[in-house]
# Entry
Amino acid sequence: MTNPLEGSVALVTGASGGIGAATVAAIRAAGGEAIATDVRESEGVIAHDVTSEADWQRIADMIAEKHGRLDCLVNNAGISIVESVESNSLAAWRRVQAINVESILIGLQATLPLLKTSGKTRFGGASVVNFSSVGGLYGAAFNSAYCASKAAVNLFSKCSAIEFAALGYNIRVNAMHPGGVETPMIDSIIQRYVDVGAIPSVAVGRAGTIADHPIGRMGNPEEIANGVVFLLSPAASFMTASSMVIDGGFTAH
# Structure
């Protein structure tokens, strides 16, 4: 399919940089209309606090007024904190869960009427992609809040997919699990590991991260975005409650 998302309306959160920006570009290249949101407003990106029910409703109302439906939802917004279990504050833990997990619940609740409308007419149904991580499949020292949140995203995606199918909504829900990807976020995580004394230097951290990927490198945002486009498209019409892993072999070794 030359334009697998031709005529599709998609919402992408966390769209200001890295994987989010690449996903917006890939959706548009595939013929879709991508609505980009982020807590950091910038050119072409709408301000959106994903932890706010009121903000989600504002975005849903905007889409309803302009399009009357939502074909694709990509919950990409997320953060990571690097901290030991004994030093991790409850406030910091809850902030990670609010952004990485709770936002998906309230986002689905706000957009569900629009997704259900699309599910009635779109071949392959409406499609939701929730960003988990290889960290949601494997634990990591000094990253318990993030890994716990991403594991929750994976299971929540399966639960909602099965529930929507049982209710006949024709809304597919899948989880995306990237490995290490060359983004500002991975750089900040490695630096934080240095700050807490877990590794001696950024160079050592980068070398170790690359070594964890049998393919011999970290990924780039476009490689993850291409997987998202597939999950959103009718080509993935038989995929729901699945976990797509794009990780250069990280989880296989």
In short: The first strand starts at residue 9 and ends at 12. The radius of gyration is 18 Å. The chain has a mean pLDDT of 96.
